[in-house]
Amino acid sequence: MSGPDPRLGVVVVAAGSGERLAARHPKALVLLAGRPLLAHALAGLAAAGLPPPVVVHTPGQGEEFARAAGDLAIAGLVPGGATRTASVAAGIAALADDVEVVAIHDAARPLTPPEVIGAAVAAVTGAPDVLAAAPGVPVADTLKRTLAGEVLGTVDRTGLVGVQTPQVFPRIVIDRVLDPTRPVEDATDDLALVERLRDGGELAGRIVVVPGSVWARKVTYPSDLALLEVLGQHSAPDAAGVGGGT
Ligand code: CTP
Ligand code: MG
Description:
The chain is an alpha/beta fold. 27% of the residues lie in helices and 23% in strands. It starts with 7 loop residues before the first strand and ends in a 15-residue tail after the last helix. 40% of the residues are buried. Bound molecules: cytidine-5'-triphosphate and magnesium ion.
């Protein structure tokens, strides 16, 4: 994109039930260092200079989510859907019409460093041919393909990254991907939706990865909360970078 800064819209998806965390509350309301995950995520986005986001909440719990956001500015609260993709679509539908670039962030990544957020946004606003951008971290462990507890082989790790959020898109791209007039398969991340159209020849351009961070780790299991409690006591060093090292 060129010219003046494009108008940015932000969606925080927070409507998941958190089955794997198995807490008593929706995951976004679970406390980390005494503060709801949602509030941490909102504070990180604000620290990166992003505008107030639309928060997609667990249906029927709008008041609890508003309370969890507290004093942090939000652009609106909308109920989510049964899948992550449906929740993303609900959030995007609530953005202002003049939004040109959309950042979608998981409430479940409470400590995502502002530098990581800024890098993902800049990757889209700074290049006209970028269809999508997301932070990623190189996979550290050796990877084995297994079946029923037996090793079938070693997976070549070259180029493999774990992707994080925020995932950022030109508005025209994400609107095309979530076109309500045709079926959208669910995906665990939003880049996958764009990859399908790129691979099918419907969209031309680059899907890029920017340096992510261990601090952007997603709370999935109870052990992730324990890890992030500790990480939260330290400031994040420079982004992990992508590629290089063994
Ligand atoms: N999410 C959402 N709507 C859904 C499912 C997920 O808004 N129907 C959001 C979650 O709130 C979370 C992010 O997407 O911020 C990443 O999803 P995940 O970590 O899988 O969270 P949950 O789906 O809540 O957890 P689980 O899969 O263990 O139930
Ligand atoms: Mg889930």
